[in-house]
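Good morning N.,

You mentioned wanting to compare the apo and holo forms, so I went ahead and generated the holo version with adenosine-5'-triphosphate. This is what I fed in:
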Amino acid sequence: MSPDQPVGQSAGQSAGQSAGPGHHSSGAVEEASAAPPISSTGDITLTDVRKSFGVTRALDGCTFTASLGEIHAIVGGNGCGKSTLAKVMSGVLPADSGQVSVIGHTPSTPHEARAAGIATVFQEVLVADECSVVDNLYLGADELWSKALPMKAKIRNATAMMRELAAVELDVEAPAGTLPLSVKQWVTIGRALLWQPKVLILDESSAALDLDSTERLFAKMRELRDQGSAVLIVTHRIAELIRISDRATVLRDGRDVGVLGRGEITEENLLALMTGRSEPPHVPAAVAQEVLRHDVVMKTSKLRVWPEAEPIDFALHKGEVLGIAGLDGQGQSDFVTALAGVSRAAEGLPQVRTAAGGFAEIRGLADAAAEGVGYVSGDRKREGIFANLSIFENLLMPLYRRTALAGKLAVIDWSSLTAAFEWEVERLAVRMGERSNKITSLSGGNQQKVLIGRAFALNPSILVLNDPARGVDVGAKGELYKHLSAFAERGRSVVYLSSEIEEFVGFATRVLVFRHGTLFDEFAGDAIEPASILEAMFGQRRGTGARGTGGHGARRQGDAAAGPEAEEGARRVPGMIPGSAGLPPWMRGTRRAGRDAGDGGGR
Ligand SMILES: Nc1ncnc2c1ncn2[C@@H]1O[C@H](COP(=O)(O)OP(=O)(O)OP(=O)(O)O)[C@@H](O)[C@H]1O
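and this is what came out, ligand included:
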């Protein structure tokens, strides 16, 4: 640390000082208004920063100021330069020009940044799968204090840290590769927190976290802020951002276009600054009741996502936009991946209406593709992109065979492919350079748009989307809803799983809430409203009940009142450890309430 580094309000803790995991006690969740007043001194000051990648101007004269003791959001559309700004502050990328001062430092390497007390959690979940959790947590730490720390102490620290952050009892010596995405995300966050940073930068770090976990992350962020650190967050989850941020800086096309104070951070203001327009995104009116009278195009009968879960009788109608909600790990992801043929349910097969008017079973991806069922995953790294291929190939590869002239792969109809590419790229507003560039040259949100474009390009009759808008900016989300609604209005159907319940409002015609691996409640039309859906997710029935759902019996009536034992029993799944139902083997007896159980399927 340099001598002129401002000292945080708490703490007497210097950057890089090991606080140890035991230091990280969960603070009570309080609202942003409890924040200390923001100092006007620019503890973090970037002035007129420019950074280009070839012809792409990622930062084009960007100025950014944040203070110690605040939670400051960096917001903007996909590809506007947020991650680049985070990387410049973290010493990952050098600025081409402009001044960078982060608590008195201009780090030129990540190592320098870390030594100065700047810790960053990057957008992609960077975990070495083959290494243990403890090694992952201490990754990159060896040269400094952790070298002196005996392995036993590291294991103790790592166990305590994961217990506190992720609320799981982990075997921290086991390889991290088998962990679900949400727990891996906690490993990356834990790695940053081990340093008790003076500046913590979180780039889309709640994207893989469920509701409970996000609350724990918020508590941690507030704790750090109250201790005098600056917490900078990049997120597209507007509702979360409004709740947690003390200030927000909005970027557009590589420049800062406005700073909003606490009371000014509203979706309307953010959208106006991000897009330069003031009208909200167009969302067509719900056609909830009408659509339920349409033909059934997909159904399940007594399908069980887990062996001991209650069976699911479900019907999707022509023209429907069906939202799927639930706390993480309640079976909703297993359900939608089964619908799309990506995974198999424990019992039963989904059925889809065929062109001939009958129903065909979906046993796998080939059946799904043959019957026009498309799938978009929110976990693009694991289930979506081909990192070594171009943007063009990533969007259109599944079409190569279809468009091959005379049915031969060797003769590809490039002109129709190009037309399809241009159509999808334009309507999804993908911000990109050359189409031959690797897909990894795109920002995270733009990569996701390419995956969505791929699904549309296959012209499916049913589109199953598994949390597709992760990392997609609010403006582009509005566009996506518009395209999906238009798709449904043309007589197609949409199944849309989201971890952000606000996404359903004004978009879905019906929402099904999952709990304990089965349908728990249902909302349609005007009843689709975040607070009620949230209550249902936590076991309070507020909707019309899950119609057509078989055999919930007594537990359906008494779910909320049945008490912790009944709750635990209901979650028990064969092959899992009693008392930690829903948990894979790498988790031993747990205090987590099963809410954020690793949702291995489809994520
Ligand atoms: N390594 C790179 N090579 C080429 N272009 C890049 C590279 N990194 C970023 N870009 C481009 O710079 C622009 C800004 O990217 P950046 O990742 O900072 O955007 P972002 O605001 O974080 O977007 P998102 O919200 O989608 O994550 C984009 O157009 C992106 O394609």
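Confidence is low (pLDDT under 50) at residues 1-41, 278-286, 548-603.

Happy to go through it together on a call whenever suits you.

Best,
F.
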